[in-house]
Amino acid sequence: MLPAKVAILGPGLIGGSLALALRDSDPSRPVSLWARRDATVQEVQRAGFRDAGTDLAAAVRDASVVVFCVPVEKIADLARDVVLHCPNSACITDVGSTKQRVVDWMDPLFPGRFVGSHPMAGSEKSGFAAASTTLFRGAPCILTPTSRALTEAIEGIRRLWLEVGARVELMTAAAHDRLVARISHFPHLAASALVQLLGENGSDSQHFAGTGYRDTTRVAAGSAELWAGILSENRAEIVSALDEFVEILQNSRALLSENRLSELHDFLFRAKTTRDQFPVHPVARDV
Amino acid sequence: MLPAKVAILGPGLIGGSLALALRDSDPSRPVSLWARRDATVQEVQRAGFRDAGTDLAAAVRDASVVVFCVPVEKIADLARDVVLHCPNSACITDVGSTKQRVVDWMDPLFPGRFVGSHPMAGSEKSGFAAASTTLFRGAPCILTPTSRALTEAIEGIRRLWLEVGARVELMTAAAHDRLVARISHFPHLAASALVQLLGENGSDSQHFAGTGYRDTTRVAAGSAELWAGILSENRAEIVSALDEFVEILQNSRALLSENRLSELHDFLFRAKTTRDQFPVHPVARDV
Fold first, then answer.
1. Residue pLDDT, tens place only, A267-284
2. Is residue B287 part of a domain?
């Protein structure tokens, strides 16, 4: 029996890396790639992926696993076509960095067979040209099955990510969105706000910025287009993180303005204790 | 004529580096070192500084420049003794990372002759053992003369820092404290608050933290003792920065909760534009 066919829709950085990693792990496994643009199809064909094209029906026909690697806002339209052409038995997943909205949309379309994924790996670069065989190795990948997801669907998607070297963890879509709001999305917004605190002539302050300030605000140099989309997508959880953060700040404000030195020390020490437990080398990569 | 004698009170990381850098620049210049503890005196004597001791009067006698390199909270007591023994013509400075309170204390004690300094250079290490000849090279050093500071005092302190390779800038003590609150002190507090946002079991989230999160929160691993002292010292300006920061965050909250995508983009883009103007290699070092 041949290994099951994987259909990858959107061979950009993530989709392309998944295709490369699957081929690296088992060259006999059929992988089909679908792209919207002819130029992208030619690019992946030059990389040796012969089963690539702009025909969605052909890409998903006979697939055991279908992976949506398109931007989150493009998933809904594409999914309506995919459901018409892919086998009823196929496991379906996506790779978006927020999960609740995608799950809400996909679960009714593919009952029991959709299991959202968030491989926590990325790069400042994008597109198939930046794809890498090793992108997912050692990276966490969070799966967000609903309560009605079939065990075989969860297992199918879990094996897909294990095969490319990711460390799989399961949680609800809500828990995922809450976690990434706190560990990625809101910190990005906070870094942007910190830079704005320097005021109109903020760049004049550059001469006085040490490595601490540079590190703290580095992510604020990320793509405004990309991050506006990410923040908007997960806005409910980010607003909730923001409110909680402001409450924490207001508590520390009271300690400062009343000069309660030992409580201020405890505030800093609690954060230091948590932060010190992070391993020196990160396992997750950004976005 | 011999070069003017410099008295350095407190040969820790900063005071020790200043002594080493002055000797490196002009071995004929007399440098006297005062330390509270015998062990420290012996340590600097082993490094070749023969004019070192625990006798404050001897250290500052005949000095042209006196540099207080002790912790800010120790300056007042020491200054009351120094004023009895140092020449009336000596220029006086300190190296504290906040300036208004020190200036308010020192200016009446040394009328016209005190000019506060903040060399923006540091290290995670402390003490004379960590001192380095090159610590100040290329680093900014902010001087905060009052309106009644004598030109010769400003020039004397300016030449001292230029001689060890620092880039000297002048501003008022109030402007200095406002700047460092925004570029160092408040960002430290914000990083600590971000870590606390992960909640009670925050360190469980470590598996999902990418390099962005790690950079954003790195300073929160700094010494809680050291930073509680720094934050307390500059608390008025930090509280003002905190209030302004919360206002910026609340503006972004409105953009998020109403999903005003293009304004959210502009918010991120403004920060990116400022942040992109920072040179890749920092010139200032922390603390």
1. 999 999 999 988 776 666
2. no
Tell me: the pLDDT tens digits for A152-182?
999 999 999 999 999 999 999 999 999 999 9
Q: Which chain B residue has its CA at the smallest distance from A273's CA?
A: B221
Token digits of residue B239: 């509280």
* More reliable by pLDDT, A255 or A214: A255
Residues B20 and B142 in one domain: yes
Residue tagged 């259909």 (tokens): A7
Query: At A118, which helix (H) or strand (E)?
Result: strand A116-119
The answer to whether residue B131 is domain-embedded is yes
Q: Which residue of B has its CA nearest to A226?
A: B265
Is the ipTM above a cut-off of 0.90? no
Range 188-217 of A in CB contact (< 8 A) with B: 188-199, 202-203, 205-217
Residue B287's pLDDT is 52
B10 and B103 inside one domain: yes
Which of B227, B242, B246 is closest, CB to CB, to A268?
B227
Q: Do B261 and A232 touch (CB under 8 A)?
A: yes
Q: Which of B171, B200, B231 is the last residue of a domain?
A: B171
* Spatial distance between the Cα atoms of A36 and A176, rounded to a whole number of angstroms: 29
Answer yes or no: is A231 within a domain: yes
**B70 in the same domain as B46:** yes
Is there a contact between A189 and B275 if contact means CB atoms under 8 Å apart?
no
Asked if A226 has any chain B CB less than 8 Å from its own CB, the reply is: no
Domain endpoint, select from B155, B171, B187: B171
Q: In whole angstroms, what is the distance from residue A281 CA to residue B210 CA?
A: 9
pLDDT of residue A206: 79
pLDDT tens readout for residues A110-124: 999 999 999 998 766
Give the CA distances from residue A64 to residues A25, A192, B17, in Å, rounded to whole numbers and listed in that order: 17, 43, 66
The position carrying tokens 């992510």 is A219
Q: Which of A122, A228, A272 sits opposite B264 (nearest CB)?
A: A228
Domain count, chain B: 2
Contact assignment for B209 to A282 by CB distance below 8 Å: yes
Mean pLDDT on B32-49: 97
- For residue A287, being part of any structural domain is answered with no
Q: What is the pLDDT of residue A255?
A: 98
Q: What's the CA gap between A261 and A5, in Å, rounded? A: 62
Average pLDDT over residues A24-50: 97
- Which residues span the domain enclosing A232? 176-276
Whether residue B214 sits in one domain with residue B113:
no
Specify whether B61 is located in the same domain as B201.
no
CATH number reported for the structural domain that contains residue A74 in this entry: 3.40.50.720
Cβ–Cβ of A275/B227 closer than 8 Å?
A: no
Based on the fold, state whether residues A147 and A16 are members of the same structural domain: yes
DSSP string, A55-82: -HHHHHTT-SEEEE-S-HHHHHHHHHHH
**Calpha distance A215→B223 (Å, rounded):** 17
Rounded Cα distance between B254 and A239, Å, is 9
Task: Looking at the structure, tell me whether residues A44 and A167 fall in a common domain.
Answer: yes
Q: Does B227 touch chain A (CB under 8 A)?
A: yes
Of the pLDDT bands very low, low, confident and very high (cuts 50, 70, 90), residue B5 is: very high
